Amino acid sequence: MTTLPPNAVEISRDTLEATARILGPESAAAQTLAEGARRESAGEIVVFFQADNRLFVGPRINVRA
C-alpha cells in the first residue's frame, strides 16, 4: 500500500482524462485511469491525487470530525 505524500491534492477524473487524451495511452495519466477502472470494477469508490510529479489512485475515505 502506498502512503500519499502530505502535499497530495485531489484531481478530477475530467482533468486526468483530458491529460490522457493529450499524452496518449501509455502515459501515467492513462495508466492511472486504468487502475482506477480496475478498482472500481471490484466495487471500490476511488479518487485521484497528484503530488511530487506523480499520480495516485486511492479509495474515497469519508472522515467525520
What's a concise summary of this model?
The protein is built from two helices and three strands.
Structure description:
This protein has one domain. Strand 2 and strand 3 form a beta hairpin. The chain is 38% helix and 23% strand. By secondary structure, the protein is an alpha+beta fold. It starts with 8 loop residues before the first strand and ends in a 6-residue tail after the last strand. Helix 1 packs across helix 2. Strands 1-2-3 form a 3-stranded antiparallel β-sheet. It is globular and about 35 Å long.
Distance between the termini: 25 Å
Q: What is the CA-atom radius of gyration, in angstroms?
A: 12 Å
* Main sheet characteristics: 3 strands, antiparallel
Q: How would you describe the oligomerization state of the chains in this entry?
A: single chain
Helix content: 25-40%
Uncertain ranges: none
Bin the strand percentage. 15-25%
User: How are strands sequenced across the largest beta sheet?
Assistant: 1-2-3
The total tally of domains equals 1
Write the layout of secondary structure elements.
Elements: E1 9-11, H1 13-23, H2 28-41, E2 46-51, E3 54-59
Helix pairs in contact: 1-2
Based on the model shown, name its key terms.
65 residues, alpha+beta, three-stranded antiparallel sheet, 38% helix, globular
